TrEMBL record:
SUPFAM superfamilies for the chain: Bacterial luciferase-like (SSF51679)
Gene3D superfamilies according to UniProt: Luciferase-like domain
Lineage: Bacteria, Bacillati, Actinomycetota, Actinomycetes, Kineosporiales
EC number of this enzyme: 1.-.-.-
InterPro entries tied to this protein: Bact_Lucif_Oxidored, Luciferase-like_dom, Luciferase-like_sf
Keywords: Oxidoreductase
Pfam families registered for this protein in UniProt: Bac_luciferase
EC class (word): oxidoreductase
Top-level taxon of the source organism: Bacteria
Name of protein: LLM class flavin-dependent oxidoreductase
Organism from which the protein derives: Kineococcus halophytocola
């Protein structure tokens, strides 16, 4: 494991115990967490994207703010639901944000996950074409977006303005961004597709399939298949692979109060309201040495180059800085990680 980052869902709710009671508080605190993570030597600061929920929704403003306050740490998403996106407008936003960051953007995109809205993308104006599913539409949007950020001509020019007829690219362009796009994959089949397309692989604490084997082993199968197909597809660069984990080292009474009940956590199998079963990964909670030992045995963590630790952002900046410090000092070094400076 070469890199470690945090993943925030950006929750906010005016309820007892929440330190992020409003959307503004959640956004400002996300920027402050990126600053704290960089000071601790973390390699990445990532945000989850959800619509119609009290969570992070539109990522580019907060990513640009994070970029303006940091200088080294990678900034990314895990993931943007491409069913909702205008791919050309997104290409402009992504390029501008990447330029502000100095080329540190790592964009995770995908079909998205189950959500509160019944017809969310249609509400935003995006309806699958005839014969398409919403997943097909997300992939089509992704293809248009990826071509746009490589500078492909996407609009016919007006000869009265340009003096000739050409196909215009969206501007600005940010060199290298096209190699920093990740596909959020929940199955082995979508991991295969991501490899065929030449995108990095982002796999979370949820797989939308279950074969009866432990979560980490199933995820390791997904990663192995992805790398095999990547080689077979003839891509020249080395791909990146990230996995997400809930990691809660317990070092004081407050940690115990929040996460002591998660000691001995196991995988869960259940339904997301769609056909088939899904497998959820366990929470790694307990004494730091035990958490480190258990993570070191996680075969998918061993196979990935990047570990994203999910953080309880609603508990506030101070607590999450404490949590990240505990991970950086007591857990991650046992996985072969060293802080970036």
């Amino acid at each position: 494991m070469k890199r470690i980052g945090f993943l925030s869902f950006g929750h906010y709710q005016p309820v007892p115990g929440s330190a992020a009671r409003t959307a503004r508080e959640a956004l400002v605190q996300t920027v402050e967490l990126a600053v704290a993570a960089e000071e601790l030597g973390f390699d990445g600061a990532y945000v989850r994207v959800h619509h119609f929920a009290r969570q992070q929704a539109a990522p580019f403003p907060v990513l640009a703010a994070m970029a303006a306050r940091t200088s080294r740490i990678e900034l990314g998403t895990g993931v943007i639901d491409m069913r909702y996106e205008n791919p050309l407008y997104m290409a402009e936003e992504a390029a501008q944000t990447d330029l502000i960051s100095g080329g540190r953007l790592q964009l995770g995109v995908s079909r998205g996950s189950p959500e509160p809205a019944l017809h969310g993308p249609a509400t935003f104006g995006y309806v699958p074409a005839e014969g398409e599913t919403e997943a097909d539409m997300a992939r089509r949007h992704t293809d248009v977006f990826r071509r746009a950020i490589t500078g492909a001509g996407v609009a016919e020019s007006n000869p009265r303005m340009t003096g000739r007829s050409v196909h215009l690219p969206v501007l600005p362009q940010s060199p290298g961004l096209s190699e920093r796009i990740w596909w959020g994959s929940g199955t082995r089949a979508t991991a295969r597709w991501a490899a065929e397309q030449g995108m990095n692989l982002m796999s979370s604490t949820l797989l939308t399939e279950d074969t009866g084997i432990p979560f980490d082993e199933l995820q390791a199968e997904q990663i192995a298949l992805y790398r095999q197909v990547w080689r077979e597809s003839g891509w020249e660069r080395e791909p990146r692979v990230s996995v997400s984990r809930s990691v809660m080292p317990i070092v004081d009474d407050l940690d115990e109060a929040y996460f002591g009940r998660d000691r001995g956590s196991t995988d869960q199998v259940g339904s997301l309201g769609e056909p088939g079963l899904a497998r959820f990964g366990k929470t790694y909670a307990g004494d730091p040495d035990q958490v480190a030992e258990d993570l070191a045995k996680d075969v998918a963590v061993r196979e990935a180059d990047t570990l994203l630790v999910t953080i309880p952002n609603a508990l506030g900046v101070d607590y999450n800085t404490h949590l990240m410090r505990s991970i950086a000092e007591h857990v991650a070094p046992a996985l072969g990680w060293h802080p970036a400076r």
